[in-house]
Amino acid sequence: MATTANDCAAGGRSASTGGAPGAKAGAPVLSSSQLFQGSKTVRIEHAGQSYILRLTRENKLILTK
What InterPro entries does the entry give (predicted)? Predict the structure, then answer.
């Protein structure tokens, strides 16, 4: 079976079968490397609010307001 870009972005899982609980099939998949682009933090603006998504030393994600 061939591996697609979406499979790689989803950690080798198909986005429609092994993605996050509640995720819709066909939803866009972004890899963390696409989001962070070599940085450890990303600022996300949503509904007029600013959030920080941070990558920890343990390779976990933390979202704060």
Answer: Hemin_uptake_protein_HemP (IPR019600)
